[in-house]
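$ fold --in a.seq
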Amino acid sequence: MEVINTIGRRKTAVARVYMTPGTGKIVVNNRDYKEYFPTGPLQFIVNQAFQTVDAEGKWDVKANLDGGGFTGQAQALRMAIARALCESNAEDRTALKKEGFLMRDPRMVERKKPGQPKARKRFQFSKR
């Protein structure tokens, strides 16, 4: 039985995934993914890679998520699953790449600068 090990990242979230052929069980941080991601859109994001290549219910996923928020973690998990699907079947790569699941989204939070209230916001200017 082969275990496919991949990693996915988004913002500051990191997803380490271990995929094995199975019945479609997805476990995230030792909890079911529907319990970990309670909202529908986040559950949809997690399953997007499987739906793209018609592989729903064919793989068991064990994921360790760290850092970031729920949205970043869900997108990092989607990227890791897409990379694992590419390792298992090279023909799936074109469909997953077309959807953009294999590209790491480089957008990060801009840092706060000293002497300012936020990253770009300035204190109110007073001439007198």
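$ fold --in b.seq
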Amino acid sequence: MSFERARHEERRTARSTLLADGTLACPACDAPVAPLQRAMSPAEPLGCGYCLHAGMVRDFLSLAAPTRATHVVVRVR
């Protein structure tokens, strides 16, 4: 018996590179973490200046609302 998978293609007329708004905060102590003055990859290393917790940018990024003091914009390139 063979099954065929249904395919769905979505095309949007408006294009945007904005994915989400978020906050950079330490996952260990919840202190705000200042982003670098350039674009950062989710896999780049980042550290907390307060408790010295180290991880990757994606570990420090929260997309939950409301955003807080260290507001960041997540874009797809």
